[in-house]
Design a protein that fits this description.
450 residues
C-alpha cells in the first residue's frame, strides 16, 4: 500500500494557519470577511484531517441488502499487490540495446498455441490476425514400465490432417508443439543418446506426415544441470530438420535470485539456446507463481524481463508470450462489516478467463471446473490499475468467499503487444487460442499500427 503518512495538502494548510493565527484581532474588531475566512480555513483543516485518517485506516465495506445485490458497493476495494521479490538488478542498457536489430522486423510472427481440452482438432474458424498456430499435439510420456519414451501415446488421429489443411488454406503455418513437463523424462531424453535420436526421428516423421511448417519445443521442469545437454539436443534436432522449417523453444523469464540456479523451471541456457535454433519463445507470464497476489503479467514486470532476455538473445530471435487469461485470489470472509478475510488461495491463485468474467457480469454466475460460482455482491465491478497495467475486479460469492481478480483484456493486451514493437522483437505468442475474444486478437494486431 502506498505511504500516505505525509499529505502535502494538509501540511500546507497547517503551516498557513500557524503563520497567521497570531495576527488575529479580538472578535469584536474582526470584519465579517475575516470571520468567514477563519471558519472556512478550520473547515478545510477538519476535512483534510478526516480524509487523512480514513486513508490510513482499513476500508469498511457494508454488505448490501438483498435488493442491491449485484451492484457496485465500493470501487477501490481490490487489495494492493505485494511487490515482486527481485534482487534489484537492472538490465545493462548498453547490452540489451546492442541486441535490438537495427532493421525493423516488419513481418512479425503472430503465434497462438492451441490446446482444446476435448482434443477435437477440427478448426471451425481461424483466429483473426494469426499467422502461426502451434497445436500442443505431441505430449511426451514414459512407457508403462517407466523406462523409456512412449511415442505411441502421441497419436493425434486423422483430424490433424484437416487441421493443417484448413490452416494452409487460410495462409496460416502450423508449428506443432512437442511438450515434455516430466522432470525425469526430459532428463532421459537429453542424457540418453538412443532416446534422444528416437525422438528426433519421430519429429522428422511428424513433420513429413502432417506437412508441418515448423516445430515448437515446450520442455519445462528440467534438471538445471542439463542446460547444455538440452542445447545439444536442440542443435541436433535443428540440424536434422529441413532448412525451411523453423525450430522454436519455450523458455521461462530469467529470475535473478539465489534460488534460481536450482529452480527446475529456470533450467535454460537462453543465450546458448538462441545460437542453435531459430526462435526463443519466452513465457512472459506466471508472474504470480511463487509470490503473493500478483497478476499473471503486469506491464512493468513484462518490460523488465524482456530487457533481461535481450541481454542474451537478439531481438530478431525473441518471441514474446502474452497471456489470454487472468488469476483469481480467493479468501474466506470472516467479517463482512470490516471485510476481514482469511486467504485460501495457493501460490498461483486460480486461473480465470474473460468468458467466466463476462458470464459473471451478465448473469451473476459462472462455472469453475464443475463448481458453480454465484455472485452475492460486488466490491469492485471493474477498474483499471494503471500501475500494473491491467483490469481488476472483486466480489463476494454466496458461499462467503471473496474473489480478487486481475485479468488481461484488450487494453492490457495492447500495452503488452506494443513492447514487441518497442524492442523490435520477432513476434508475439498467445496462450492460448480458445481463451481469446475477437477484441483481444484485434488488440494484438492494433499494437502494430502504433
Amino acid at each position: 500500500m502506498k505511504n500516505r503518512k505525509h499529505n502535502p495538502d494538509v501540511y500546507m494548510v497547517d503551516v498557513f494557519y500557524e503563520k497567521n493565527k497570531k495576527r488575529t484581532v479580538p472578535e469584536k474588531e474582526e470584519s465579517r470577511n475575516v470571520k468567514v475566512f477563519r471558519f472556512a480555513l478550520k473547515l478545510v483543516i477538519v476535512i483534510a484531517a478526516i480524509l487523512l485518517v480514513a486513508a490510513l485506516l482499513p476500508g469498511r465495506i457494508i454488505k448490501p441488502s438483498q435488493d442491491s445485490q449485484g451492484s457496485t458497493v465500493l470501487i477501490n476495494a481490490a487489495p494492493d499487490a505485494e511487490p515482486v521479490e527481485e534482487d534489484g538488478s537492472i538490465p545493462d542498457e548498453a547490452i540489451w540495446k546492442e541486441n535490438i536489430s537495427p532493421v525493423a522486423i516488419e513481418e512479425k510472427i503472430y503465434l497462438a498455441w492451441d490446446d482444446p481440452s476435448n482434443k477435437n482438432w477440427t478448426l471451425t474458424e481461424m483466429p483473426p490476425n494469426i499467422n502461426v498456430l502451434a497445436p500442443v499435439w505431441f505430449k511426451l510420456v514414459f512407457t508403462a514400465d517407466g523406462k523409456s519414451l512412449d511415442l505411441t501415446a502421441s497419436d493425434i488421429s486423422n483430424s490433424a490432417f484437416d487441421y493443417v489443411k484448413t490452416c494452409h488454406d487460410n495462409g496460416v503455418e502450423v508449428w506443432a508443439t512437442v511438450q515434455c513437463i516430466d522432470y525425469d523424462l526430459s532428463e532421459l531424453i537429453v542424457e540418453n543418446s538412443d532416446e534422444s535420436q528416437k525422438l528426433i526421428n519421430q519429429i522428422l516423421l511428424w513433420i513429413t506426415s502432417y506437412d508441418l511448417d515448423g516445430i515448437n519445443l515446450d520442455f519445462e521442469n528440467m534438471n538445471p544441470d542439463n542446460k547444455q545437454k538440452f542445447n545439444n539436443f536442440c542443435a541436433k534436432l535443428k540440424a536434422a530438420m529441413p532448412v525451411d522449417k523453423p525450430l522454436s523453444a519455450c523458455v521461462t523469464v530469467e529470475l535473478i535470485s539465489e534460488s534460481a540456479a536450482d529452480n527446475p523451471w529456470q533450467a535454460y541456457d537462453r543465450g546458448g539456446l538462441a545460437q542453435v535454433i531459430d526462435y526463443i519463445t519466452v513465457m512472459t507470464y506466471d508472474e504470480h507463481k511463487d509470490s503473493t497476489k500478483r497478476p499473471v503479467a503486469s506491464i512493468d514486470w513484462v518490460d523488465l524481463h524482456i530487457r533481461r532476455l535481450l541481454e542474451e538473445i537478439p531481438s530478431e530471435k525473441l518471441i514474446m508470450g502474452i497471456p489470454f487469461h487472468g488469476v483469481d485470489y480467493r479468501a474466506e470472509v470472516i467479517d463482512s462489516q470490516t471485510m476481514t478475510v482469511s486467504p485460501i488461495w495457493n501460490d498461483s491463485g486460480h486461473t480465470t478467463t474473460v468468458f467466466m468474467l463476462n458470464l459473471l457480469l451478465e448473469t451473476g454466475r459462472y462455472d469453475y471446473r464443475g463448481t458453480e460460482i454465484v455472485l452475492d455482491y460486488w466490491i469492485n465491478k471493474g477498474g483499471w490499475d494503471a500501475e500494473l497495467g491491467i483490469s481488476d475486479y472483486s466480489f463476494v460469492d454466496t458461499e462467503g468467499i471473496q474473489h480478487t481478480i486481475w485479468i488481461d483484456d484488450e487494453n492490457s493486451i495492447y500495452q503488452k503487444a506494443r513492447l514487441a514493437y518497442d524492442y523490435n522483437l520477432a513476434g508475439i505468442a498467445i496462450w492460448k487460442k480458445n481463451l481469446g475474444t475477437e477484441a483481444m486478437f484485434e488488440a494484438v494486431a492494433r499494437a502494430g499500427e502504433g
